[in-house]
What we know:
The protein is an alpha+beta fold. The protein has four helices and six strands. It has helices at residues 3-21, 24-40, 49-65, 109-121; strands spanning 70-72, 77-83, 86-93, 96-105, 126-130, 134-140. Strands 1-5-6-4-3-2 form a six-stranded mixed beta sheet, with helices on one face. Strand 5 (126-130) and strand 6 (134-140) form a beta hairpin. Helix 1 runs antiparallel to helix 2 and helix 2 crosses helix 3 (49-65). The protein is elongated. Mean pLDDT is 74; it is low at 44-48.
Amino acid sequence: MSDATIESSFIATLLLLISSYYPPFRVQSVFAAAIAQYQTCSKHNFINNEMIVKKTLDTSAAIAFSTFPTVPEDCVSCFNFYLNGQVHQGILYFNGLYGLVSEFKTHQRLTAYQSILDLIEQGNDVLMTVSPSHYRSWINLRSPDCLHHF
């Protein structure tokens, strides 16, 4: 079976699954995020097509539903703080203090989202800021695990 046939089969399966699990108004955004995730995933790390579908759907659904706050960077107050002998960047957002974990260029959008989803899976309170040139992920400085990220 050719790569084009496999890819067509994958896309058809993906669209069918998304259509059956999501309301019509969400299908387009979830499908677009899923295709973008599929194109960036390393297919050799997966055993079969079903695992690719599951990984793609997991990430794209979280992106489409924005399960964490995503705010424009100009809507937060910036500050610096000293911890473990280094100065770190921080922000204040709705009375929450957050420390910078990572920064990604705009073309690395999916990597940025995957990074913040990993933090959420670890039980952290997180925030993402967006600017025209980059995405930044932040962790609440009151999160129990936050010291591991600095």
